[in-house]
Amino acid sequence: MIKLDMRDSRPIYEQIKEEMKKLIIKGALKADEKIPSVRLLASELSINPNTIQHAYRELEAEGYIYSRKATGYFVAPITDNVTNEKKEKLFEELKDILKELNYLNTEKEDIASLIDKIFDN
Amino acid sequence: MIKLDMRDSRPIYEQIKEEMKKLIIKGALKADEKIPSVRLLASELSINPNTIQHAYRELEAEGYIYSRKATGYFVAPITDNVTNEKKEKLFEELKDILKELNYLNTEKEDIASLIDKIFDN
Amino acid sequence: MIKLDMRDSRPIYEQIKEEMKKLIIKGALKADEKIPSVRLLASELSINPNTIQHAYRELEAEGYIYSRKATGYFVAPITDNVTNEKKEKLFEELKDILKELNYLNTEKEDIASLIDKIFDN
Amino acid sequence: MIKLDMRDSRPIYEQIKEEMKKLIIKGALKADEKIPSVRLLASELSINPNTIQHAYRELEAEGYIYSRKATGYFVAPITDNVTNEKKEKLFEELKDILKELNYLNTEKEDIASLIDKIFDN
DNA sequence: GTGGTCTAGACCACC
DNA sequence: GTGGTCTAGACCACT
Q1: Residue D105 lies in a domain
Q2: Cβ neighbours for B68, distance < 8 A, ≥ 6 positions apart
Q3: Overall average pLDDT of the D85-93 stretch
Q4: Which nucleotide's C1' is closest to B48 (Cα)?
Q5: In this model, does residue A8 exceed pLDDT 80?
Q6: Cα(D30)–Cα(D34) distance, integer angstroms
Q7: Which of A96, A103, D31, D107 is in Cβ range 3.0-4.6 Å of D77 for a Cys bridge?
Q8: Are residues B87 and B61 in the same domain?
Q9: pLDDT at D80
Q10: Residues in chain A whose beta carbon is closer than 8 A to a beta carbon of chain B?
Q11: Which residue of C lies nearest to B81 if distances are taken between CA atoms?
Q12: Are C17 and C65 in a shared domain?
């Protein structure tokens, strides 16, 4: 389900966060669906359960998943009050990247076509 | 010229790198223009010269500035052979951000207008 | 594993870079193999850990090794996207050396046989 | 006659050395021909005469030029006792470069054709 | 214990 | 005065 790249310089807990986020964004994990338990994922990836716990706690803090005691972690549905804050942050990052691409003389069309590809499925 | 945020979790040298990059991208610093000397910027920001050195060397390695002994650091002009690699990385980041914005039900038009604003000056 | 020549005018960190590069190129260090930790190598060579850090970070930036926090530095496998740039630089150096050897009336065969020796193992 | 690249990180005296060496190797400067005086070249390049002096002295030490008091510097003819030493050094550099190119999976033919181009004029 | 960041302070090469 | 190298020593994040 999740693959770790041992050659990646990012800490393991961060890789897990990103991978999990991508699964949710891709739709591979739907809202209110249970995600693998801390222990299960830890044994599958043969890493320390604390590392998984760390990743899950941050995902929860960022609103991607929620926890129910003694039951596990679940994918959080999209709620407007959280997403607006996230959107703003993403737009900031987007602006910086676009500015740099503009500085590097990138063709506007190359970016437009990428957007079409992603937003029009 | 550059401001540091001590509450920011990013290392100081990273903040300096980013700020300097933004000044170059914005056009506030033009090609072949001298940037503040290691010691000067260090004393202005009240941090150790080694930290500035660290930031400048990485900017140099990434092709944003170049150095001349006994003269100083200068803004590097854009050269195609380096930028292609950078563009690829930026496109990867762009893809991830756009996917997440799509997941959060962002309007395609909001993004298109941001692009127009940046690319059409 | 690595020997330093204090009479050498090159900086210590450069010597370490070159030596480590040679070990990798020779095949004495294989892909994904761990290299000595910053502190260990520093104490073995009786130099400051920062100097090793400096050498390792540049080797990392040049794609020869990669790092994992709390784990160590490892030899990076060869990836095409980075090597093409390196090859171009090496060909430039090669051209200058060959031109000078030609100027000094070197026999073409002496060079051809060196190439055979290295490339045919 | 000589062009300096202000964006080159090498010290100016070294750039002058290399450029002069290349002129000799190319045959643009023939044996026993007079090269520009220290003062003339300094004023042409608008740099400090000491820097030219530095370059010329090193070229003399390496056997590429010789000086005659109150007359100037001249291109040195090729003499076997000096060139053998130089050839050895060049062969060492050549070996290192070829080893690295081999490590990067370069085609032997690409190198062979470069040699043909240079040695067969 | 590992890499990563930072400080304080020193000396060298270049121009 | 400028960048470049190096030391000694400290503290943090990660596993």
Answers
A1: yes
A2: B74, D6, D9
A3: 92
A4: E7
A5: yes
A6: 9
A7: D31
A8: no
A9: 75
A10: 21-22, 24-26, 78, 83, 86-87, 90-91, 93-106, 108, 111-112, 114-115, 118-119
A11: C85
A12: yes
If you average pLDDT over residues A100-116, what whole number do you get? 95
Do C92 and C45 sit in the same domain of this protein?
A: no
* Contact positions of strand E to protein Cβ (< 7 A): 1-10, 13-15
D9 phi, psi to nearest 5 deg: -80, -15
Determine whether the distance from the CB of C38 to the nearest atom of strand E is below 7 Å. yes
Chain C neighbours (≥3 Cβ pairs under 8 A) are A, B, D
Q: Which domain holds residue D111?
A: 80-119
User: B32-65 pLDDT, tens per residue?
Assistant: 999 999 999 999 999 999 999 999 999 999 999 9
pLDDT band, very low/low/confident/very high, at B1 (cuts 50, 70, 90): confident
Q: Which residues contact C9 (CB under 8 A, 6 or more apart)?
A: none
Please enumerate in sequence order all residues whose Cβ is within 8 A of that of C107, keeping only pairs 6 or more positions apart, or say none: none
Q: Determine the nucleotide nearest to C38 by Cα–C1' distance.
A: E3
Which ranges of C27-79 does DSSP label H, i.e. alpha helix? 38-44, 49-61
- Statement to judge: residues A33 and A50 lie in one domain: yes
Residue C70 approaches strand E within 7 Å at CB: yes
Å between CA of D91 and C1' of E3: 38
By C-alpha distance, the chain B residue nearest A97 is B90
Please write the tens of the pLDDT for every residue from B83-102.
888 999 999 999 999 999 99
Same-domain check for residues C70 and C27 = yes
Chain C residues in contact with D94 by the CB 8 A cut-off are 94, 97-98, 101, 111, 114
D62 and D87 fall within a common domain: no
- Pair (D65, D91) in one structural domain: no
Q: For the whole model, what pTM was predicted?
A: 0.90
Mean per-residue pLDDT of chain D: 92
Q: Give the span between the Cα atoms of C72 and C41, in whole angstroms.
A: 12
- D104: Cβ contacts below 8 Å, ≥ 6 apart: C78, C83, C86, C87, C90
Residue B4, domain member (yes or no)? no
- C27: number of Cβ within 10 Å: 9
Q: Is the pLDDT of residue A121 over 80?
A: no
The residue whose CA lies nearest the C1' of nucleotide F1 is B70
B90 in any annotated domain:
yes
Question: Residue A7: closest CA among chain C residues belongs to which residue?
Answer: C66
Residue C96 maps to a domain: yes
CA of B71 to C1' of F3 (A): 8
Q: Are residues A92 and A65 in the same domain?
A: no
Give, to the nearest 10 degrees, the angle between helix D108-119 and helix C108-119: 170
Q: Residues, chain C, total?
A: 121
C50 strand E contact, CB < 7 Å: yes
CATH for D48? 1.10.10.10
pLDDT of residue D83: 84
